[in-house]
Structures are given as structure tokens and as C-alpha cells.
From TrEMBL:
This is Elongator complex protein 1. Residues 915-1082 form the ELP1 TPR domain. The keyword NADP does not apply. InterPro entries: A-sol_ELP1 (IPR056167), Beta-prop_ELP1_1st (IPR056164), Beta-prop_ELP1_2nd (IPR056165), Elp1 (IPR006849), HB_ELP1 (IPR056169), TPR_ELP1 (IPR056166), WD40/YVTN_repeat-like_dom_sf (IPR015943). Belongs to the ELP1/IKA1 family. It comes from Lipomyces tetrasporus.
Length: 1306
């Protein structure tokens, strides 16, 4: 599908300086200095040779000149010219036998040195340097081949004798030949395929020039020689052509098999698999000229016909450096042939300016599609680029039209209509000449073909794809009528009837704009000259302008400006510049801003000045996307925006998670994109085509269909390409909800609707799996219209329903209103696909089927069992008390009939209320079962069922339900309440139990419950209500006081001692124990017992002082030591993380190395010991951790052993606990300070306050440092291998210590 497009034609006029009228005889590329080395002479009139250097700027410098000696053939000839830029030396091989080395003049050598480094008396017939420039192979007039090294020392010399032909005994197995094909059981079909029908004798062609030619393989390991040998064949002496293959060491490896009509030309493909030559084959009464191929072993491989006239003279045969193009040099032109899918295409015929005959041609040694032609006193440099002759890529005309040049025919294939595999084509267009370029207009109905002398216009129609006729040339435009002096190189359609043509002139290029009318008559409407060469041009995606690239990478745009008429005016402007010259460009317009894309020869892809890729192999641009392939075998998509610096190019690593990037076959390139059919066509390296449907294009097509409310087309596209059907709703929820009825009617089939409903999820796929298929700007706009929390769409909408339930309810409403008879299955599906599933409604719907609808009932039962677990359905059917429905569902399950049939039969024997009670009990719905049991009143024997109710309530903890049922029957309700109180007491809910007993008037049990629960106020109040004896009250109060003291409820214990025990001493001790010194002092003075101040309060204050100061001292020491160790650990981790995470000893490493992640662990990508996953398990989610290992790791983490990986976490948690402890004791410290001050212990009070303030300040100075964790330490991998960050650790709040100002003077 690829064609050779000429992008440069540079004619250079040269002439000799040292002697007049010397003919141009050779040329060589100096790739280092980017210059040409040309050789002139000698001629019959002037025996003189001159070497010139032509620089890139056009400067000509004579390197050397000398007189040649006459030879027997009247005058000498240059056989080979080679230049060594590293040594500044040119080597000229002359037919007379001399090998001349010319050291060109430079700064160190003002004059050139000419030296004959070797001479062969018999003369030289051919010569060629090896590709590595280390060996020179020459053949002599004495029928020998000599290999010389770089210093021109002979390495080996071999005679070309007829005995060499005996080295190879060729046996062809007939691969690919007709005789190997199966032809039936006849004699012909049984013929031995290794014996051909006819064996060539090697008869020499009558047009053979008798020359010897040499060609090296691309790696320089072998060299082949094509020469004439005299052989004896059945007493008849015959001259035949033979190709000998020699190794680099001069060993004869093979000779070619005899071929009749073979000529002297030989060219070894640089890749090494083929040796090309020429054969003239008699074909009936005419002669056919073929290019034939040999393998290295001498066997003939295959051939192709050149389509040349039989008398056409071939001058040379050469492969380009990358083995992709074979050039055939003719007298007035060059043919360029390429192979694809084992078929040879004639891509170009390059004619030279004027009527001169070509003298030679040469490919550039590094640029694969650059060649130089020489004739008389002129040189022409031609450069080509691989290009697609393609049609519009904008709907609705995006039919994927591709045109392939093949000699005098143009192969046309609209890939959107018929994906015809090459070398076949959908239609062929016969032409007068080999096309230079072909173009098709934006409407796909006019084809313009640029040829050597004319532009041929053909009309075509693709409006009826089922009956597309052959295109026919209806008009020809002579190029001389457009630009008589220029050489046409390219043409492009701008729109339907406007055509742009590039003409090359000496030193400048010209673009001519033609407008075609309905009769294909042309008018020249615009002409623009450029002082530098035009490289290429490309129409804009909207077909209103064309982009033109100049040789200096400037981009000009020639646009058609609408002036209210159909014609419009032509405007030309400079719109920018690419970073370097690009061989292929494309132009798109996005929001009125033009963006030019360019692909350079080095694989760099640019968008204006922004580089997008460094390894691009092909690209294509549509109105919305850029698609390109890379050397890494990836296909990437980029959303187009009006700012190229905002282009988001997916990374190579995103191939498995990003819909904009996918793997393709190695070497595949894009040839067509058809947005309307959401397809793309790739061509593989061997030439075959492959159509793919990229997910991004598919989703774009789905979105277009949704916007047009064509839900059926959108659904079918999702179904065919396995796209999540949620996108039908998620792309535009409001549009979907407004058109639910249209959606249901569009899908038509029940199966389609079921498929959509059953696949619904509460996930917004446009924000998750298909996030990258929309440009970032559109995603941001959608985010602004959604209810979001932390960037994640909310599952529940403003109506309180989840997405799935909202859709199911809307569809159910339509189905029940208009499709209740035809879409029963879809209604059931909608019920069951709710979240949670509304199984009861579905079963009720099925249960309402009458006996006349047995088929529908069976179908519905089968469908519902397919959608839900049959065991769950069986239980739900029992819950509806429909035994018939339960039996039908049970038959669809794997249940044993011996189990469910007796169960159902037993239920049938009971009355309905008892049956419902048994069913609800079986299903675990005990509250409903209790209702049915209470409603039953009497059992089958006529006995009251209340005793059974009591047992049922106790066994299933249904006290509240029973009390609600019997709220109008006080006796039964109190009976239940008594059972409930007993239950509460047994479960240590003493307060509620006491209240229940108190309500029932059972004071003894109520008092016992209050005492057990330490509810001293209720218990002592109940003692007064029950009028208990004082002794008994004293016992109860003593017990309560002791329990309160043990529970550290010191103030409550003091109240009991003081008010009920009249024990002031114990009351004061309890208050002092709880640091309530102010209250202790108050009651002591109130009771006139000041002695207790010295006896109890003062010692308690001293004891409290000792406890608090000891606590603060311990906390200060702990904080200092742990903070120092924490800083040491973090410094070690920062300086040498690998050593830190290796750990001090092997015993700390768990069996599987991977340790459970903690809040302080580090990045999973670097330290697998701290991530929770190894490199493999982080991607697979696999884990080998057992419960035993987890428990062991938790123990290690809690222990925080010094030097282990858990030490840092242990230290941070320990400091957190220290802060909490200090905060908790602040109130006690404050009360202690106040008590010390009141008892005139000022020094102790000041000391406690100072220590508290100091401790709080120490904590505040380091709390941020301790609890701040870096992002790397917070990195984790989940089970799917996705990276996430742990939440930041909250910094504990350090409360200020409220100081006494009267003590704050130190």
C-alpha cells in the first residue's frame, strides 16, 4: 500500500575545469562532509582525468587532475571511483589496469598527491570495494579475480576457469513451481518435482554486453562475479553466463545454475538473501525481459517481468542500502521496483531533464531512498519517501481509499467497502505512463494522476458500494500547458475541485493551484514561487487548506477563503516551522488553531515545535485524534487539543492499562483509518493487511451514536467489540433517563435488553476503565457536573437510588406500561439485577402466571434460576408461602427430592398459620414466625400456645417483639417482661434488669441487680423504698463503697462513706486518692475535724507529689532516649536505605521475605521487605502468607525489637502513648498544684508546675518531626499491583498546661 513519493529533485550542472569538455564519468557520496566527489574524463579527444568536490552549498573545488595514458582501446576509462573521508583519499580504478590513489589537498597538504598504487598489465574489467571499505575486488583481462586490502596488497588471486562450474551440482526441489502443485492422479501429477520439464543450457543472450560485473553482500562476507565462461556441451562449445560466489578469503563457495538469456548485470541484495540479475526470455514470437534472482548457493529462486520492450537496453541494476528498492538503469530513465506480499511493483520511473542519455546511477550509502543520476555534464539528486496515496479521513467520506502505483496501472482499494488483500485490488485504473503520484478528492469521485508528461483525471463513484464501476480516465492535462519549464513532482487535492501541483525549477519550486469544473476543464487560479525547494504537502483535515513544507522546515498554508461564493479566494501564509525537515506531514485544525504534524527520517514525530515520539514508524491524523506506531511495536493514540504542549502521549508501560496504547505486530504500519467504521488498517512487514478496531475509536463511535440517540447502533457496537454496556448510560445519564422509552423500543429484542440490564454496575466507566478515551478537558467538564467525593463519582444520586436501581426502575416503568406481555423475561431481569436484587417481586410476578401459561411459567422459572442462586430462590419462594412455586424452583436445583418433597408434604398437613410459622422458622425469620405463632392462639389440640410462645421468645431472644405483640394484654406482657429482666441480668445488663424488676415490683431482684452493677444511687434509693433494716443497709453501702473504690470511682466512694456510712476518715482518703484535695479539705473543715488535715491530707499531697514528679521524670527520660534513637534510625535510612532495610539479623526475616505493610514502611518499588509484596506478587496479587506468619509478624511489630524493621514504628507509637498519658494526667496535676498551694507547700507546687510546663514544651518541639512521614514511606501496592499512598498520620494534639500565675515567677 506504500508508494515512493519524490520529495526532492536537485539538478546540478557540472563541467571540468582543468581541461575542456571532459565527460562526467563517475560520482561518489562523501557522507562525512555531505558532499559529492565527481570524476571527469578521459575522452577520446582529451586524455585527462579531473576530480571535483561539490559541497552542499554548491561550491565546486578541483581536488586533483592528471593526464591518463593511452591504452590499446584508444583511451582509458574509469571503472570505479571511491572516496575515503577518514584519509581524505580518493581511489580511481582505470580500465587500463592502473589503480590511482589521490590524496586531496587540505590544510596540511596544500597540493594533492597523485600516486599509482598498483597496476595490472592485462587491464581491469570490473572493480568494487567491500561495504566495510577494507577489501577491493577486481577482475582482470586475464580472467582472474584479485582481492586487495586497503593498502592495495594482494590477498588472494583466483582464475575464472570453466572447471569452477563443477563445484556445484544443483538439485532443485521445485518449491513454488508449477510441477510441484497437485494435479490429480494423472501421469503428469505423478511426475518427479525435482526434475523440471526443461533444463536451461545457459545460452548467452544476444544483447549481452560481454562485461564482467562484481557485487558484494551487505555484510562484506561474500562477493559475487558475473562473467562469461566457455563450456563444452555435447561436442558443442557454448558461451554462458556464470555467477561465482567467493568468500571474503577468496574461497569459491558456489556457482550459479545455467540460465538461458542471462546478461551481465548482477546486484547482491544488502540483506543477503538474493542475487539479482537480468534475463531475456523468448516468449512466443517476442522477447521478455525479466529480473531473476539467485540464492547464495547458486540456485535460481524466482523472477519478475520488467514489462520493458524487448529491444530496451538495460545499463545497470542496483539495490538501495536497506534492500527495499531495486533500481533498473535504462538509457533515459530509471525504474524503481519494490516487493510486497511476494509481488513486485513498479513504483516509479524517473526521467532526467532533457534528451541526454543516462551515464550512471548511484544510491546513497546511508540514506536509503536517495540516489544520484549522471548524464553528460549534469547531476540530479533524487530523494524519495514512503507515502500513502489515500483519500479523505473525515466522515462521511472516510472510505479508506488507497491507491497503489504499479507501472501503467493504478490499484485502487476502498478499505471501508472491501478489504481486498494486496497484490489484488478492488479496482484497477489503466494509465498511459507510470504515475509519479496519485490523489483523490474529498468526495472520492475524482482521481488525479501525475505522470511524466501529463495529469490524467478519472471519474469514479462510490455512492453505491454494491455496484462500483471501473474508474476511467476522461481527461488529460499536458504539464507543458501548466508550466512548460518545470518538472512536476507532486500533486494533491485541496477540496473536491481544487488541485495543487508542485513544479521544480533550477533553484526554486513553484506551486500551481488548478480548479476543475464539472467537465474536468481546468483553470489556473493561483501560482506561488518559493526560493527554496518544496519538500511535500498535505491537505488539512477539513479540506479547506493545504500545508506546504519547505526544505528549511518552514510550513506555509495555502487556504481557500470563502467570500460568499462557491469559488472563494486563495490565501497563502506562513504558519510556523517544524524543528527539522520532515518527510511526511499532516495538517489538522482544532478550535481554529492549525497544528502541523511531521515525521522525520530519524523517527521523530513532531506537532508544531513539540516532539511527541522519537521512534515513530508511521502516523495518521483525523479530526479528533493522532494515531502513530512506534519501533517498540506499539500503537498509540493522542487526543487533539488546540495546544500541542497539552498533548498526552501514553507511556510504553501503559499498554495493559490505557486504552490509548496497544501492542501490534512487529513492523506493522498504519495505512488507513476509518472513523465512521471505528476501524484501522495496518500493513504487516510482509505486505498483508490487518483490520483492527481500537477501543478508543469504538468508544468514539459509540458516543456519536448516543449523541444521535441511535441506541441500537451504540449497543451493537458495544456488543460486537466487548465494550462495557454501562457506557450507554454513563456517557450522558440525563439523555438516557429522558429517552428510556426510546432506548427500550430501539433495542427491540428481549435478549438485547437482558444483556444490557444484567451487565449494569454502579461504576462510572467513563471515569474508570475508559477514562483515557476522552480528552482531559471533556473529563474535567464532566467532573464538574457530577456529585463527587475525593474525585470518585458517588454511587447514590440525589434521589437516594444507586445507578443500577435508578436504571432498573426506569426500565421497569416502561416495560410494565407498554411491554408487559412481550417482555416478561426483561421485567424479571430488571427485578433481579437491582442492588440488592428484588427477588420477591420477581417471584410474585411469576407466581401470578395462571395454569394456562405453563410454557411461560417454565421459561420464567428457568430464566430466574439462571440469573440467581437457585438455593436462594428456593428460600425466597418458601418465604412467599407458595409451595407450588418452591417445588418448581427446587426441580431446577441440585437438591435431593428425598429431602424437599417430604418437607413440603409435611407443610401441607398443617393449618396456614402453623405452616407459615414453620416456614418462617425454617428460613430464620423468627420475628415473623412469632407473629404467626401468637396469631395461632390455640394449637391443634386446643391448648393455649402462650407457653410455647414463652419458650420461643427465650430461645430466639424475641422479648421486644413479644412485648410489642402483647402490649394490649398486660398479664402476658408482664410475663414476657420478667423473662426479659432475667435475660438482661444474665448478660450483665444490670441497670436495665433492675429497672425491669423495679417495674414488676420485685425489689429484691432489682436491688440485687443494682448492687451487682455498682449503681449505688439506684440501689440505696431502692433500700429506702423497700424500708430495709439499717444493718442491712450498712452492709449494702459498705459493699458498694468497696466496689466503687476498686473501680477508681473515688468521688462516688467518698460520697457513700460520708453520707451512708458516716465514715469521714475513709471519705477523705478516697478523695485524696483521686486528687480531689479541695473537696477533702472542705469536708474536713465542715465536720470540724482539722486533725485530718495533718493526718491524711498532707501525707496524701506528698504522696501525690512523688507520684507526679516520678511520672514526669520517666516521661522526660523516655522522650529524650526515644527521640534520639528515632533520629538515628531515620538518618541511617536516608544515608544507606539498602543497609537499613536489610535488617541486623537473618532471624528477623520472615519465611517469604515479604513483610506486611505498616504505616512507616517505604516504597514497594525499592524495598520489598517493607512493602507487603515482592516484585512478582505486587503485580499478581498473589500471597503466600499464612495466618501463622501474620501472627508472628504482629508479635514482632508489637515488640519493636531494637534493630528490627519495626523499631521505628514502635518508637513513634510509644511517643504517641506518652503524649496521651501526659494529657490524661494534666487535670490531676492541676488539682495537686492547687492542693499543695493551699497547704503551704509552695516549693513542691512550683516544682510540679515547672516540670509539667517543661514536659509539654519538649513534646511540642518534636511532635511534628516525629509524626511527619515522607511520601516514599507511605507508598504501598494493593493486590492488583496499583500504587497508592497510606493516609498521613495525624499529629497528636498537645494540650497546653494551665499554669497558676501566682506560681509562675521562676
Amino acid at each position: 500500500m506504500w508508494n515512493l513519493l519524490p520529495i526532492q529533485r536537485s539538478p546540478i550542472t557540472v563541467q571540468s575545469v582543468s581541461a575542456p569538455d571532459l565527460p562526467l564519468s563517475g560520482c561518489f557520496f562523501d557522507v562525512v562532509n555531505d558532499a559529492l566527489i565527481c570524476a571527469f574524463g578521459p575522452s577520446r579527444a582529451v586524455l585527462h582525468i579531473e576530480l571535483q568536490e561539490i559541497s552542499k552549498t554548491g561550491k565546486i573545488e578541483v581536488l586533483a587532475s592528471w593526464d591518463s595514458l593511452p591504452v590499446a582501446s584508444d583511451f582509458d576509462q574509469i571503472i570505479d571511483l571511491h572516496y575515503f573521508p577518514d584519509a581524505s583519499t580518493a581511489v580511481v580504478v582505470l580500465a587500463g589496469g592502473d589503480i590511482v590513489s589521490v590524496r586531496v589537498k587540505d590544510n596540511d597538504q596544500p597540493e594533492g598527491i597523485i600516486e599509482i598504487v598498483g597496476s595490472i598489465d592485462e587491464g581491469i574489467t570490473s572493480a568494487a570495494w567491500s561495504p566495510d571499505e577494507e577489501i577491493l575486488a577486481v577482475t582482470t583481462g586475464a580472467q582472474t579475480i584479485i582481492l586487495l586490502n586497503r593498502q592495495f596488497d594482494p590477498l588472494v588471486e583466483r582464475k575464472l576457469v570453466a572447471d569452477d562450474l563443477k563445484i556445484s551440482r544443483h538439485v532443485s526441489v521445485g518449491w513454488g513451481k508449477k510441477e510441484t502443485q497437485f494435479e490429480g492422479k494423472g501421469v503428469k501429477g505423478m511426475r518427479d518435482p525435482t526434475i523440471p520439464e526443461r533444463v536451461d543450457d545457459g545460452v548467452r543472450s544476444t544483447a549481452d554486453d560481454g562485461k564482467v560485473r562484481i557485487s558484494w553482500r551487505g555484510d562484506g562476507a561474500f562477493v559475487c562475479v558475473n562473467s562469461v565462461d566457455a563450456v563444452d556441451l555435447e561436442s558443442l562449445q557454448l558461451l554462458r553466463r556464470t555467477i561465482r560466489v567467493y568468500s571474503r578469503e577468496g574461497v569459491l563457495e558456489s556457482v550459479s545454475e545455467p540460465v538461458d538469456g542471462q546478461e551481465s548485470f548482477v546486484s547482491w541484495r544488502p540483506s543477503g538473501n538474493l542475487i539479482a540479475s537480468v534475463q531475456r526470455v523468448p516468449d512466443g514470437g517476442e522477447c521478455r525481459v525479466d529480473v531473476i534472482f539467485f540464492e547464495r548457493n547458486g540456485l535460481r529462486r524466482h523472477e519478475f517481468t520488467t514489462r520493458l520492450p524487448p529491444d530496451e537496453c538495460i545499463l545497470d541494476l542496483q539495490w538501495n542500502v536497506e534492500s527495499s528498492v531495486l533500481a533498473i538503469l535504462l538509457s533515459n530513465r530509471i525504474q524503481l521496483w519494490t516487493m510486497s506480499n511476494y509481488y513486485w511493483y513498479l513504483k516509479q520511473e524517473v526521467y532526467v531533464c532533457g534528451e541526454d542519455e543516462l551515464a550512471f546511477m548511484k544510491w546513497h550509502p546511508e540514506r536509503p531512498l536517495t540516489m544520484i543520476l549522471g548524464h553528460e555534464n549534469k547531476l540530479e539528486i533524487h530523494e524519495f519517501a514512503w507515502n500513502l496515496f489515500s483519500g479523505s479521513k473525515s466522515p462521511p467520506n472516510d472510505l479508506g481509499v488507497l491507491m497503489v502505483a504499479n507501472g501503467s496501472e493504478l490499484k485502487i482499494t476502498p478499505l471501508g467497502i472491501a478489504n481486498t488483500p494486496p497484490p489484488m485490488s478492488f479496482r484497477d485504473l489503466a494509465l498511459s505512463e507510470t504515475p509519479i503520484q496519485a490523489a483523490i478528492n474529498s468526495a472520492n469521485d475524482i482521481i488525479a494522476v501525475l505522470e511524466h508528461s501529463m495529469i490524467e483525471l478519472a471519474e469514479w463513484s462510490l455512492l453505491t458500494p454494491s455496484s462500483v464501476k471501473l474508474p476511467k480516465v476522461t481527461k488529460s492535462i499536458a504539464l507543458a500547458s501548466i508550466d512548460p519549464a518545470g518538472a512536476a513532482r507532486q500533486l494533491r487535492f485541496i477540496n473536491r475541485q481544487t488541485l495543487a501541483v508542485i513544479f521544480d525549477h533550477q533553484g526554486y519550486s513553484r506551486i500551481v493551484i488548478l480548479r476543475l469544473d464539472s467537465e474536468l476543464q481546468h483553470d489556473i487560479i493561483y501560482v506561488e514561487d518559493f526560493d527554496i525547494s518544496v519538500v511535500t504537502m498535505a491537505p488539512r483535515t477539513d479540506h479547506r487548506a493545504i500545508g506546504v513544507e519547505l526544505a528549511n522546515a518552514d510550513i506555509r498554508q495555502i487556504s481557500i477563503v470563502s467570500n460568499g461564493s462557491d469559488i472563494g479566494e486563495i490565501a497563502s501564509e506562513n504558519i510556523g516551522r517544524l524543528p527539522e525537515r520532515c518527510l511526511t506531514i499532516a495538517e489538522a485544525i482544532v478550535k481554529d488553531r492549525v497544528i502541523v504534524f511531521g515525521l522525520a527520517s530519524n523517527g521523530r514525530l513532531y506537532a508544531n515545535q513539540q516532539r511527541l515520539s522519537v521512534s515513530c514508524t508511521s502516523f495518521i491524523v483525523t479530526e479528533n485524534h493522532l494515531a502513530f506506531t512506534t519501533a517498540q511495536s506499539l500503537l498509540k493514540f493522542v487526543h487533539l487539543t488546540d495546544n500541542e504542549f497539552e498533548f498526552e502521549v501514553p507511556a510504553d508501560s501503559a499498554v495493559s492499562v490505557d486504552e490509548r496504547c496497544r501492542s501490534i505486530e512487529r513492523g506493522a504500519r498504519i495505512v488507513a483509518i476509518i472513523p465512521s467504521k471505528v476501524s484501522m488498517v495496518l500493513q504487516m512487514p510482509r505486505g498483508n493487511l490487518e483490520t483492527i478496531f481500537p477501543r478508543l475509536l469504538v468508544l468514539e463511535g459509540v458516543r456519536r451514536s448516543i449523541d444521535k440517540k441511535d441506541y441500537l447502533q451504540a449497543f451493537l457496537a458495544c456488543r460486537a467489540h466487548r465494550v462495557n454496556l454501562d457506557i450507554l448510560y454513563d456517557y450522558n445519564p440525563d439523555l438516557f433517563m429522558r429517552n428510556v422509552e426510546l432506548f427500550v423500543s430501539s433495542l427491540r429484542k428481549v435478549e438485547y435488553l437482558d444483556l444490557f440490564i444484567s451487565g449494569l454496575t454502579n461504576e462510572d466507566v467513563t471515569r474508570t476503565i475508559y477514562k483515557e478515551t476522552l480528552p482531559s478537558a471533556l473529563i474535567s467538564n464532566k467532573l464538574s457536573s457530577l456529585s463527587l467525593e475525593d474525585g470518585v463519582p458517588a454511587e447514590v444520586g440525589s434521589d437516594g437510588k444507586s445507578k443500577v436501581n435508578r436504571i432498573c426502575d426506569a426500565i421497569l416503568e416502561i416495560l410494565q406500561k407498554s411491554y408487559s406481555k412481550t417482555h416478561i423475561q426483561s421485567i424479571i431481569t430488571a427485578y433481579l439485577c437491582k442492588d440488592p436484587a428484588d427477588i420477591e417481586s420477581a417471584l410474585i410476578l411469576i407466581a401470578n402466571f395462571g395454569h394456562d401459561n405453563q410454557d411461560e411459567l417454565a421459561s420464567a422459572i428457568e430464566h430466574i434460576c439462571f440469573l440467581q442462586d437457585v438455593n436462594k430462590l428456593y428460600d425466597y419462594a418458601l418465604g412467599l408461602y407458595d409451595l407450588r412455586l418452591a417445588l418448581l424452583i427446587a426441580r431446577q436445583s441440585q437438591k435431593d427430592p428425598r429431602e424437599y418433597l417430604p418437607f413440603i408434604d409435611n407443610l401441607q398437613k398443617h393449618v396456614p398459620l402453623r405452616r407459615r410459622f414453620l416456614l418462617d422458622t425454617h428460613l430464620g425469620r423468627y420475628d415473623k414466625a412469632l407473629v404467626h405463632l401468637c396469631d395461632l392462639k390455640y394449637d391443634e389440640q386446643g391448648n393455649d400456645v402462650f407457653s410455647e410462645v414463652e419458650k420461643y421468645v427465650v430461645s430466639h431472644n424475641l422479648y421486644k417483639n413479644a412485648m410489642k405483640i402483647y402490649k394490649y394484654e398486660p398479664i402476658k406482657q408482664y410475663a414476657i417482661l420478667k423473662l426479659f429482666a432475667k435475660h438482661l441480668k444474665s448478660h450483665n445488663e444490670f441497670k436495665e434488669a433492675g429497672l425491669a424488676y423495679e417495674l414488676l415490683g420485685d425489689y429484691a431482684d432489682a436491688l440485687d441487680s443494682y448492687v451487682l452493677g455498682s449503681h449505688w444511687r439506684e440501689a440505696l434509693a431502692l433500700c429506702s423504698m423497700a424500708r430495709l433494716p439499717r444493718d442491712e443497709v450498712q452492709v449494702i453501702s459498705q459493699k458498694l463503697a468497696e466496689v466503687l473504690y476498686e473501680s477508681r470511682m473515688y468521688k462516688d466512694a467518698a460520697t457513700v462513706y460520708l453520707e451512708y456510712r458516716r465514715d469521714l476518715k475513709e471519705a477523705v482518703r478516697c478523695l485524696c486518692k483521686g486528687y480531689f484535695y479541695d473537696e477533702a479539705i472542705r469536708i474536713v473543715l465542715q465536720q470540724n475535724s482539722s486533725d485530718y488535715l495533718e493526718e491524711i491530707v498532707n501525707p496524701a499531697l506528698i504522696e501525690g507529689f512523688n507520684q507526679i514528679t516520678e511520672l514526669l521524670s520517666d516521661c522526660r527520660g523516655q522522650l529524650s532516649a526515644q527521640l534520639e534513637r528515632l533520629r538515628e534510625l531515620r538518618l541511617k535510612k536516608s544515608n544507606d536505605p539498602m543497609s537499613y532495610f536489610e535488617g541486623p539479623e537473618e532471624s528477623d526475616v520472615p519465611d517469604n521475605v515479604s513483610i506486611a505493610p505498616s504505616e512507616l514502611s517505604t516504597s514497594a518499588s525499592l524495598f520489598t521487605r517493607y512493602t507487603g509484596k515482592t516484585g512478582g506478587t505486587a503485580q499478581t496479587g498473589a500471597t503466600r502468607r499464612t495466618a501463622k506468619n501474620r501472627r508472628r509478624e504482629e508479635r514482632k511489630r508489637a515488640r519493636g525489637k531494637k534493630g528490627s524493621i519495626y523499631e521505628e514504628e514502635y518508637l513513634v507509637n510509644s511517643i504517641r502513648r506518652l503524649i496521651e498519658r501526659v494529657n490524661e494526667t494534666k487535670d490531676d496535676g492541676r488539682r495537686l498544684i492547687e492542693g499543695l498551694s493551699r497547704r503551704e507547700m509552695h516549693e513542691r507546687a512550683v516544682e510540679v508546675q515547672r516540670r509539667y510546663v517543661e514536659m509539654v514544651n519538649n513534646i511540642k518541639s518534636c511532635v511534628v518531626e516525629v509524626f511527619t512521614i515522607s511520601d516514599r514511606d507511605r507508598q504501598r501496592y494493593d493486590d492488583d499491583g496499583n500504587l497508592y499512598l497510606l493516609p498521613e498520620q495525624p499529629i497528636p494534639k498537645v494540650e497546653e498546661f494551665e499554669k497558676l500565675s501566682i506560681l509562675d515567677y521562676n
